Amino acid sequence: MKMEDIAFWQFSHKGYVPCRVTVMAGTCEVCGAKSVLPGSDKIFDRAFRRGFAELEKGGR
């Protein structure tokens, strides 16, 4: 596990919201699948809310 920057787009009723987070993530040595620590969904949710707020005020 190591800290990784992850950029993603989340769909909302206003369209797609660009988001970016830095979380502790690991990569499976066999299949290459990524995994994050339990509870990381809160970090993704906060990133979406920040991105959506910027979209609302016309920042993007």
Describe what you observe in this structure.
27% of the residues lie in helices and 45% in strands. By secondary structure, it is an alpha+beta fold. It has one domain. It has a 3-stranded antiparallel sheet with strand order 1-2-3. A hairpin with a 6-residue loop joins β2 and β3. It is elongated, with a radius of gyration of 13 Å. It has 1 helix and 3 strands, in the order βββα.
Q: What portion of the residues fall into strands of 2 or more residues?
A: over 45%
What is the helix tally? 1
Arithmetic mean of pLDDT: 93
Whole-number total of structural domains: 1
Give the proportion of residues in helices. Answer: 25-40%
What is the CA-CA span between the terminal residues?
33 Å
N-to-C SSE string, H for helix and E for strand: EEEH
Main sheet? 3 strands, antiparallel
Q: What overall form do the CA principal axes indicate?
A: elongated
Total beta strand runs: 3
Structural class category: alpha+beta
Strand order of the largest sheet: 1-2-3
* Rg, Å, rounded: 13 Å
Low-confidence stretches: none
Summarize the structure.
By secondary structure, this protein is an alpha+beta fold. About 25% of the residues lie in helices and about 45% in strands. A hairpin with a 2-residue loop joins strand 1 and strand 2.
Helix-strand blueprint:
Blueprint: E1 2-12, E2 15-27, E3 34-36, H1 41-56
Antiparallel strand pairs: 1-2, 2-3
Characteristics:
alpha+beta, 45% strand, 3 strands, 60 residues, elongated, single chain, 27% helix
